[in-house]
Amino acid sequence: MSELAIQNAQANALETLKKHGKTFNFARLFLPKNTGNDAAVLYQFCRYVDDIVDEAKSKSGAALHLERINNALRAQDEADPMVGPFIKLCKKHQIPIRYGLHLVHGVSQDLSTVSITSKDELIRYAYYVAGVVGLMMAPILGADRKGRPYAVDLGIAMQLTNIARDVLEDAHNNRRYLPGDWIDNVSPQDIAHSSKATQSIVTHGIRTLLALAESYYESAFIGLNHLPLKSRIAINVAAVTYREIGRKLARNEYAFWRGRIVVPSWHKTLLAVGCLVSPDSRYKRSAIPRHHSTLHQPIKCIMNLN
């Protein structure tokens, strides 16, 4: 890719981030310019892959499109207009191409009816569509190698928050990410129609989901200590403001049927000020707690941090 093409790709990536990733764009403001630009390129690629499924006119067409992306990734085809900037980003930051393949695999699962059965299946899905994004973001942000497991945890935590926020919307799209063994295998159709009995069962599932998300957020906050200061502040802002979605849902008594939870800009600003006043770096480098391996038990067979 020419220098002009790279600049155009970065400009397009920033526009995509501003339009679709409001929380992440807000956090980007706390990053050095070049780091923020690279983070936007990664976000654009992830958004592009995700939109192939979410905006698909046909499942077969979307599957073929995802396979073309896989082929471009395996061939490391920098000439591809959408995949090329991501491949160049991977080379710049030594991001394994297999992480991009993991993302495509995760997103492709949404092409069929989704009915997650267990917590372990949920964590595996969350790794593929979001935990691996944390892995890709880590070197862009300057994280040391010991910080990678925590980056996975932040991605998983955010995805669990997403699922809690979008329970009703997903049900209308014939998707149920709440594990069936948490909610008596209530179907997406039943969630969409949302009777009183269903509301009670699903509310319990969302409460359990957000409690699980908290365990991953807490691990992720420990991992901030493996980041340089500016990246630490930015990711703390992103994590705190995103976690607030779940906390607001909890304050609303998990009433998913009332519509999507939104954290307004003024509230994000207050949370960001708190992060600036007290950056989350609670440990001296020599005393950072070791990562809790149990958090990665469901994904240890598919995740390779070497």
- Oligomer state equals single chain
Q: Rounded to an integer, what's the Rg over CA atoms?
A: 19 Å
Indicate the mean pLDDT. 89
In percent, how helical is the residue content?
Answer: 55-70%
The total strand number stands at: 2
End-to-end CA span? 29 Å
Descriptive overview:
With 306 residues, the protein is an all-alpha fold. Helices cover 67% and strands 1% of the residues. The protein has 13 helices and two strands; from the N terminus they run ααααααβαααβαααα. A two-stranded parallel ribbon has the order 1-2. Helix 1 crosses helix 2 and helix 11 runs antiparallel to helix 12. The longest helix has 28 residues. The two termini are 29 Å apart. The mean pLDDT is 89.
